[in-house]
Amino acid sequence: MSQQLPSLLAGIGDAMRYLDTRKDVIARNIANGDTPGFKAQETAPASFAGMVQNGAPSVSAPTVELSSTMVSLGARNVKAGNIVLDHDVTETKPDGNNVTLEDQLLKLGNIQQDFATLTNLYRKQMSLLKTALGKNEG
Fold first, then answer.
1. Which entry of 7, 23, 27, 41 is 20 to 30 Å from 108 by CA?
2. pTM for the complete prediction?
3. Nearest-5° angle of CA 10, CA 23, CA 115?
4. Rg of the chain on CA atoms, in Å
């Protein structure tokens, strides 16, 4: 007998994994904040149309572009399917780097809030399931 998570709990898990990927991408942006020619990256949002048509979440196609400077320094295309260039940047430095520490930290703060919200939602759903099974301990 295979056990499956209720779709709401599975969706919360998927959202948490997406936030974890976003956090990793933003950490990489911050780490490369002084790398000449580095372009800030972001994770692609899920395609709602694909979710409706296929009945399951999907991610939009990647569109990663490398500058000639990045290629000359040995950069290669990222193989992860949902990492794209971040087009929500406020400035580009003379060396071509467009990572702004303040923007990246604001995004990390938003990710932390979203993760806390999902964690609370998960806890409440687990409490409801325990109550329904008669195993809630007060």
1. 7
2. 0.67
3. 45
4. 19
Query: How many C-beta atoms surround the C-beta of residue 40 within 10 A?
Result: 24
> pLDDT tens digit string along 17-35?
889 999 999 999 999 999 9
Angle between helices 101-133 and 7-31 (to 10 degrees): 160
pLDDT in tens, 63-84: 556 677 767 776 655 555 578 8
95, two tokens: 């060396």
Q: What is the 3-state secondary structure (H, E, C) of the chain?
A: CCCCCCHHHHHHHHHHHHHHHHHHHHHHHHHCCCCCCCCCEEECCECHHHHHHHCCCCECCCCCCCCHHHHHCCCCCCCCCCEEECCCCCCCCCCCCCCCHHHHHHHHHHHHHHHHHHHHHHHHHHHHHHHHHCCCCC
Token representation of residue 66: 């490398």
How far does Cα 99 stand from its chain's mean position? 17
